[in-house]
Write a structure and sequence with these properties.
This protein has helices spanning 3-16, 19-34, 37-41, 58-66, 139-143, and strands at residues 44-46, 70-78, 81-87, 93-95, 101-103, 110-111, 118-120, 125-127, 132-133, 151-155, 161-162, 176-178, 183-185. By secondary structure, it is α/β, with parallel strands linked by helices. It has one domain: 3-Layer(aba) Sandwich (Rossmann fold), CATH 3.40.50.10420. A hairpin with a 4-residue loop joins strand 8 (125-127) and strand 9.
């Protein structure tokens, strides 16, 4: 099956989840993630601003603020290019393009990718070799190699973790997948 068809299949399953189920799973995964060494040891963490169908990460944002971590989210700055921008607090966020939260322009401070300790990576699906089926834009495939010091973590619904996905040499790998049922760490560096 092609990446495009696989992506459509996984995103359709994700969209079909009831909101209360999504919220319950999001809470469980954030609790599991914030108990890890790589969360506790991270000074700078990057996560994505959730769309309605994705795992909801507001609770993770709050944990970062409470724990004194520097939190960054992606900012699209050009075709296929994103940068990490610091989120000082919830008040710094506003609804941006495609209905996704972003940092207000007057408050934007960029974080260098090499300084990031941990990145929460979105995706349609993940496999048992550290492979990731992204959302189709290639933004993370271009960004993650720049964040060479970061642990790349996927928080995922159980159905998003599969044995194998079609990958290409330019596809960035992840280091850890955490689902409600299991946590898998890969040696991909």
């Amino acid at each position: 099956m092609t990446k495009k068809l696989l992506r459509r299949e996984f995103l359709s399953k994700r969209a079909a989840l009831p909101r209360d189920e999504r919220d319950r799973i999001s809470h469980a995964l954030i609790k599991k993630f914030t108990a890890t060494d790589f969360y506790r040891e991270a000074k700078i963490l990057m996560a994505y601003a959730s769309t309605p169908e994705e795992l909801q990460l507001a609770e993770l944002f709050a944990a970062c603020f409470d724990d004194g971590k520097i939190l960054a989210i992606p900012l699209i700055v050009g075709k296929g290019i994103m940068r990490a921008v610091e989120v000082p607090n919830f008040d710094a966020l506003e609804v941006g393009a495609f209905g996704i939260q972003t940092v207000k322009p007057e408050l934007r401070r960029f974080v260098e990718p090499a300084q990031i300790d941990c990145v929460i990576v979105p995706g349609a699906a993940f496999d048992l070799r550290g492979g990731r089926l992204g959302l189709g834009g290639g933004y993370y495939d271009r960004f993650l190699p720049q964040a060479a010091n970061a642990v790349k973590v996927a928080l995922a619904y159980d159905f998003q973790l599969v044995d194998a996905l079609p990958t290409e040499p330019h596809d960035a790998k992840i280091d850890v997948v955490i689902t409600t049922e299991k946590s898998v760490r890969f040696e991909v560096r």
